[in-house]
Amino acid sequence: MLPSVERWFASHTWQQPSWSVEELVALKRGRTVSVVLPALNEEATVGDVVSVVKPFVGSLVDELVVMDSGSVDETVVRARAAGARVVLRTDVLPWLEPLPGKGEVLWRSLAATSGDLIVFLDSDLVDPDPAFVPALLGPLLTGDVHLVKGFYRRPLRLESSGGGRVTELVARPLLNTLRPELSGVVQPLGGEYAATRSFLESVPFAAGYGVEIGLLLDAHRRYGLSGLAQVNLGVRKHRNRSLLQLGVMSSQIMGTALARCGVAVSPGPLTQFVQVSDEWLPDSTDVLVADRPPMMHVVEQP
Ligand SMILES: O=c1ccn([C@@H]2O[C@H](COP(=O)(O)OP(=O)(O)O)[C@@H](O)[C@H]2O)c(=O)[nH]1
Ligand SMILES: O=C(O)[C@@H](COP(=O)(O)O)O[C@H]1O[C@H](CO)[C@@H](O)[C@H](O)[C@H]1O
Known about the structure:
Layout: H1 3-12, E1 13-14, H2 21-28, E2 33-39, H3 46-53, E3 63-68, H4 75-82, E4 85-88, H5 102-112, E5 117-120, E6 125-126, H6 132-142, E7 147-153, E8 155-156, E9 159-162, H7 165-178, E10 193-196, H8 197-200, E11 205-206, H9 211-223, E12 228-235, E13 237-238, H10 243-260, E14 270-276, E15 279-285, E16 291-292
Parallel strand pairs: 1-12, 2-3, 2-5, 3-4, 7-12
Antiparallel strand pairs: 5-10, 6-13, 7-10, 8-9, 11-16, 14-15
Helix pairs in contact: 2-6, 3-4, 7-10, 9-10
Residues 102, 122, 154, 156, 163-167, 189-191, 209, 212, 238, 240-241, 246, 249, 253 line the site of the ligand O=C(O)[C@@H](COP(=O)(O)O)O[C@H]1O[C@H](CO)[C@@H](O)[C@H](O)[C@H]1O.
GO molecular function: glycosyltransferase activity
Cofactor: Mn(2+); Mg(2+)
Keywords: Glycosyltransferase, Magnesium, Transferase
């Protein structure tokens, strides 16, 4: 790693975050905290994720919101039953036709919440750890950073590691090539992170899976490494998607990262191949790489 990255890694990485909830509550000093869970058809896991955050509501956490992304299963029912406020994509900025994607609901969550600090947790976490929330908030409440990324060991199905496939095969090589200053970020794509509202409302949001790498690149461009921190969250298990699904995700991530790094791209459909009987046939998927504008520029209904 570059010497500047080594210095940042040493000073802005918490390998064993140990802030207590009581300590962090005292450090809020009037600042409020929103926890946002993006959810698309997560009926099997959303309730557990809500349940591990719920005990913090009223002290460390001021609001807990599940942003539903157009689920057609029992996600909304399960999230409400577990104690979250559920916001549908169309409940906020209703005059804007929703774009498909995770980033769309994270962007809309800015209009659905009011916290000065926002924590994002995926809704597909398995055995979620309650310590995620205080650990992610620690650097924001004790320092002057604007984006805190979680990192962890990432099991893959029955294996104890091997997860984070797009991270290791796409995002990390891309960042090392295009933005080596970010080569010290352990989990650039991780869905567990926290940030200041002032930062989040000042940058565009990639509507799809490019949202995390877009925010990371924008935070780095805006604040430099000193505006970023990362905390060890231990282990993170989640529903692992298929390689073909990750291929589409990777296209969105590449499109967003290249655009943020000044490489003009307009990814067309992604053609993959599936076996049908004894033949391998092409299967094309449109890849949406689009940004929503900074929320601070979005006026009320025109
Ligand atoms: O269009 C989408 C796609 C994903 N998600 C949510 O974003 C999180 C991460 O998505 P996913 O699990 O598909 O990504 P992975 O973790 O497999 O990379 C999960 O809570 C999804 O329910 C969403 O709200 N809308
Ligand atoms: O990190 C990764 O490589 C991908 C896929 O993880 P797995 O190989 O299924 O463990 O998961 C992440 O990528 C998405 C796009 O940034 C994020 O939205 C997810 O929260 C994150 O899990």
